[in-house]
Design brief:
137 residues, alpha+beta, eight-stranded antiparallel beta sheet, 19% helix, globular
Length: 137
């Protein structure tokens, strides 16, 4: 399987990853649930959160996604990207699922925003002990 297909497979099958932002010039990482469309990632959050404030000040992020904890050979992705914050109704509808009901009343909830991650670089990591492989976008 070529690297691009391997990366897309990871994105299709993995939903939880870490997302780092910059808070007072220091990294701040949290787990997020992601939805992908090819190499673009989307994640839902409240506009009241610290991460939204951090991303408005500095839109750069670093994401790890795909590691399943099975061992040293697990493939995963390192994604560097920039984030835009959207309250576009069509994107909210696209990303909405029933698991979000714990936090939001529905896709029309005024606090719900979608973070759109546009990748700048993606590296496929741990491919059977090989060096990291840069994915050409």
């Amino acid at each position: 399987m070529n690297e691009k297909k391997a990366a897309l497979k990871i994105l299709k099958e993995s939903f939880v990853g870490t997302m780092a932002t910059v808070q007072q010039n220091k990294p701040h990482t949290r787990y997020m649930t992601f939805f992908s469309d090819e190499f673009t990632l989307y994640t839902a959050t409240s506009k009241q959160t610290q991460k939204v404030d951090e991303l408005e000040e500095n839109p750069h992020t670093h994401i790890l996604i795909g590691y399943e904890g099975k061992g040293m050979g697990d493939e995963y992705l390192e994604i560097e990207g920039t984030v835009s914050i959207s309250d576009d109704e069509s994107i909210k509808e696209k990303v909405w699922n029933k698991h979000m009901k714990s936090w939001f009343s529905g896709p029309e909830d005024p606090d719900l925003v979608i973070l759109k991650v546009s990748p700048v670089s993606i590296r496929l990591m741990n491919k059977k002990g090989e060096e990291p492989i840069e994915i050409t976008l």
